[in-house]
Design goal:
Elements (H helix, E strand, L loop, with lengths): L16 H12 L6 E5 L2 E2 L19 E4 L17 E7 L4 E7 L4 H12 L6
Antiparallel strand pairs: 1-2, 1-3, 4-5
Length: 123
Amino acid sequence: MTGYCIFSMEVSTQEPIIEIKHKIKHLLGIPFDSQILTICDCELIDSLDLEDYPLVSDGTKIHPSTTKQTPPPPPIIQPPPATKMKITVKLSARKIQIDVDETDTVRSLKEKILIVEGRRCGG
């Protein structure tokens, strides 16, 4: 709601505050969960009736306002994972470094080790 809207409507003192908010939604299109109704700076609670407030008498003005609709925070963008990394493989006689990426499997790693060692794959 940008600005002021002056309106009046009849309500009963036995009427729950949530019902009054539904009437305002029907009349002005403001979602009831974003409405704040006050009397003398006292916020009215949805589950209570108007008669629960001793300040209310015939002709009492209820002041509606709306909560600011803040947009949801932007999603946190994670940097893409490093696609290449270097691992060190300890063999019985020495250590070797092999480049791998996130799609490598244990099988493909074994094949890379065999290639570096100069052995044939599958044999």
